[in-house]
Design goal:
The chain is 26% helix and 32% strand. The chain is of the alpha+beta class and 598 residues long. The chain has five domains: 174 residues, Rossmann fold, CATH 3.40.50.300; 85 residues, Translation factors (Elongation Factor Tu (Ef-tu), domain 3), CATH 2.40.30; 74 residues, 2-Layer Sandwich (Alpha-Beta Plaits), CATH 3.30.70.870; 106 residues, 2-Layer Sandwich (Alpha-Beta Plaits); 117 residues, Alpha-Beta Plaits. The strands form six sheets. The protein has an eight-stranded antiparallel β-sheet. A six-stranded mixed β-sheet has the order 2-3-1-4-5-6, sandwiched between helices. The relative contact order is 0.08.
Length: 598
């Protein structure tokens, strides 16, 4: 029997990275008896190997628990900026949020970003101060920061330790009393939001739903309104966090359904599910499509694995709607896919999941961003790959994406971070103090933060600064395409768009790197950086040299010179027809920029 809606609480757990969301979910599961003590593992909702190894949440997970006569539907969300799309989808399925703040670190950049998303969705928010068992915990400072930086009343913030379980009964009581029940819907027809979907080799596509009105039951014929597909439900269930089958899901409830769906394209997140015979009048607005920030091409090391890569990407894109991909062909690397990601960590996780879950050996190209190229004939072209840039004489100007970054840092690290932002062509928007912390807002070109900005930020602040960003439009600048020529042949994979002022330094540095990375040949190799027809940097890789004079034992010097001249002619001819193979490791190493070399 579906639960009475007024006794249902749907809520998400939101916080910055490592503030204890997944550990709190563990304690709630334990307190409500979702799993027995012997079945408990650390971060029980982080089901992927990568999540367990890295200690981060990548996928939002749902669990249904019973507290007294309340049904609690919990969504444990990721904290990293690259998975903010995952957070926004989870928030759309809930009415309330638990905001977790670390008592030792206070409010961080991603805390702000997630809480603003929750406020936009109209959520009731319960602040929770975690890690009160640590010696460095400062509960009053955390309370003050919640009020100063976010503007939430923290007088009633619940103080807990997700590690020891202290304060969990008080938190459960606060959830039942302070979070709202599902919003009433006047419609009686079945209407559900498709929150997430993933592929199961036994069941086909498993769909996570939030029912808004009516019911979804076994044997019911349903329609996916956007995909225009009809299916019969063969399983209805919920996660406790074990999979448990139920007869039906009622208004306000969350759970999963399966309907022997084989086609991944039928289940797009944000779609509306309704009864096929008695459909609802209007579809839900769905989710705003995610905008990829970083692009990179993925090629299989073995060209015969192209279909396997296509299948792998399709299955990951079903489960991760922020992943975009399209086929691409490269002269050097063969057939592959141009993929769009929300950030570098997102890119790294997708690559790792493809190699682990689908046993693929991949060659990734350098990450890049999307530029708008304005041609002289008035046409505007989206440039995903610098190698596809039109000839210089046809280009009027280029626009690049900029972001608005929020950085929270302790005061003592402020100087280094201001210098870092200035070096990356940043423009300061505002700076204000909250206690002993500084909130910095900067506008920065996205291309300048793609490589190693986050690492530099963490090392300059000894790990204390936090960083969040959002896209802030496109801006015109003095940008040029720099090509790398090896033995006078352009190398597609190393072409890049750079700012004219930095082009020479970047070109010199790349050439110097390649000189060490490309293996020596029997002939000299010139490594050059060029903008259009102008060479701006050059390094020469020396050839192997056979001592052709070793068999001489005296005599006239002209005999020696004759043999050396003959060798020189041979090397010149070899260089003309010689093919330089650049190892894959050289591509990857060449693009890892050290800060000192920037």
């Amino acid at each position: 029997m579906p639960h009475p809606p007024e006794r249902i609480r749907n809520f998400a757990i939101i916080a910055h990275i490592d503030h204890g969301k997944s550990t709190l979910a563990d304690r709630l599961i334990e307190a409500c008896g979702g799993l027995e003590k012997r079945e408990m593992i650390k971060q029980v909702l982080d089901t992927m190997d990568i999540e367990q190894e890295r200690g981060i949440t990548i996928k939002a997970q749902t669990v249904r628990l019973m507290y007294k006569d309340y049904q609690l539907n919990i969504m444990d969300t990721p904290g990293h900026v690259d998975f903010s799309y995952e957070v926004s989808r989870s928030l759309a399925a809930c009415e309330g949020s638990i905001l977790v703040v670390d008592a030792t670190q206070g409010v961080e950049a991603q805390t702000l970003a997630n809480v603003y998303q929750a406020i936009e969705q109209g959520h009731e928010i319960v602040p929770v101060i975690n890690k009160i068992d640590l010696p460095a915990a400062d509960i009053e400072a955390a309370r003050a920061q919640i009020e100063e930086v976010i503007g939430l009343d923290a007088a009633q913030a619940v103080c807990i330790s997700a590690k020891t379980g202290e304060g969990i009964p008080e938190l459960l009581a606060a959830i039942a009393q302070r979070l709202p029940p599902p919003r009433p819907v006047e419609e009686t027809a079945s209407k559900a939001l498709l929150v997430d979907s993933w592929y199961d080799i036994y069941l086909g596509v498993v769909v996570l739903v939030r029912v808004l009105s009516g019911t979804l039951r076994k044997g019911q014929k349903i329609r996916f309104m956007n995909a225009r597909a009809e299916r019969e439900i063969d399983r209805v269930g919920m996660f406790t966090p074990k999979k448990v089958e139920v007869e039906a899901l009622g208004p306000g409830e969350m759970g999963f359904i399966t309907a022997a769906i084989k086609e991944l394209s039928e289940t797009r997140v944000g779609d509306t599910i309704t009864d096929a015979k008695n459909p609802c009048a209007t579809a839900l607005p769905g989710f705003k499509p995610s905008v990829p920030m970083v692009f990179c091409s993925l090629f299989p090391a073995d060209s015969s694995a192209f279909e396997k890569l296509r299948e792998g990407l399709a299955k990951l894109a079903l489960n991760d709607s922020a992943l975009h991909y399209e086929p691409e062909n490269s002269q050097a690397l063969g057939m592959g896919f141009r993929c769009g990601f929300l950030g570098l960590l997102h890119m790294e996780i997708v690559e790792e999941r493809l190699s682990r879950e689908f046993d693929l050996d991949l060659i990734p190209t350098a990450p890049s961003v999307v530029y708008h190229v304005h041609k002289t004939n008035g046409e505007v072209v989206d440039l995903y790959n610098p190698a596809d840039m039109p000839e210089a004489q046809h280009v009027d100007f280029i626009e690049e994406p900029w972001i608005k970054a929020t950085i929270l840092t302790p005061q003592e690290h402020l100087g280094g971070l201001l210098q870092l932002c200035e070096d990356r062509r940043g423009v300061q928007v505002e700076m204000h103090y909250a206690g002993n912390r500084v909130v910095l807002t900067y506008r920065l070109p996205l291309s300048e933060i793609v490589f190693d900005f986050y690492d530099r930020l963490k090392s300059l602040s000894r790990g204390y600064a936090s960083f969040d960003y959002e896209l802030d439009g496109y801006q015109r600048d003095a940008l040029v395409r720099m090509q790398i020529l090896v033995n006078a042949e352009p190398v597609d994979a190393l072409a890049m768009i750079v700012h004219r002022d930095k082009a020479e330094a970047r070109g010199r540095q790349l050439c110097a790197r390649l000189k060490d990375l490309i293996p020596r040949q029997q002939f000299k190799i010139a490594v050059q950086a060029a903008i259009g027809g102008k060479i701006i940097a050059r390094e020469t890789i020396a050839s192997y040299r056979k001592d052709v004079t070793q068999k001489l034992y005296g005599g006239d010097v002209t005999r020696k010179m004759k043999l050396l001249e003959k060798q020189k002619k041979g090397k010149k001819r070899m260089r003309q027809y010689g093919n330089v193979d650049i190892p894959q490791s050289a591509f990857i190493e060449a693009l890892k920029m050290g800060e000192g070399e920037r």
